[in-house]
Amino acid sequence: MNDQVILALFLVLGSVAAQWSLPPSTSSVATGQPTQQSSNNYAYNNGFSFLAVDGNEDTNFYHGSCTQTRAQRNPWWMVDLRQAYTIYSVKLVSTVFPRNTLENFRIEASNDTLTWDSCRSHSGRMVSTWQLFYCTRNLIGRYVRIQRQDYNQLTLCEVAVNVQT
């Protein structure tokens, strides 16, 4: 290669690299925190809201590590992070059972549980049993809520809230 080609390649790669930025340092803060949900489906002694932040990503509801509401309009689940954070992304783990797969939902954050700001909306089904959703903007909140936008059950096997550190 001649010197001009090498220099041109260096300049192009350098300008592309300058436009990229590394993601901020993040950590998950939801595990073990207090939770609530709009209703409880206690089938098989499962379905409790705290099961979505127990650190167990098992996607089989019958193994006892997933939360589930009753079928209702716009069911929701919420975690209290106990302090406000800048929320970067939310990892959701759903169930392997197609009938209860997470679909048509919003991820929201609040400081007071009265007013909610959108992190991300998702229509249709998740593409796999787990998916990482990046907030569309910087969002500061103490509470994070997952809410379906239809009439159905809400089933979550794990929720990880990643915040900027």
From TrEMBL:
SMART domains: FTP. One of its GO terms (biological process) is regulation of cellular defense response. Pfam families: F5_F8_type_C_2. The keyword Metal-binding applies. One of its GO terms (molecular function) is fucose binding. It comes from the Eukaryota. Gene3D superfamilies: Galactose-binding domain-like (2.60.120.260). Keywords: Calcium, Disulfide bond, Lectin, Metal-binding. Acts as a defensive agent. Recognizes blood group fucosylated oligosaccharides including A, B, H and Lewis B-type antigens. Does not recognize Lewis A antigen and has low affinity for monovalent haptens. Belongs to the fucolectin family. Homotrimer. This is Uncharacterized protein. It comes from Owenia fusiformis (Polychaete worm).
